[in-house]
Write a structure and sequence with these properties.
The chain is α+β, with helices and mostly antiparallel strands. It has 2 helices and 3 strands. It has one domain.
Length: 63
């Protein structure tokens, strides 16, 4: 039996806002450690967008 989570949890507010700018809706709640976390529907499109943001950051920071 596959144990696939429906939501991807992000602790970084700025990353969550960048993904929200790309039209991915998040759910905001308090995590286990008492901090605000952001939950996104974990889809292939979402993962591609998140990886694209990481690639862009890497490209900008290395120049």
């Amino acid at each position: 039996m596959e144990n696939k989570k429906e939501y991807y949890i992000i602790e970084n507010r700025y990353l969550a806002e960048a993904l929200a700018f790309l039209k991915f809706r998040y759910y905001k709640f308090t995590g286990d450690k008492g901090f605000t976390v952001y939950g996104f529907k974990d889809t292939k499109k979402f993962r591609n967008a998140m990886n694209g943001l990481f690639d862009l950051r890497k490209e900008i920071c290395n120049n």
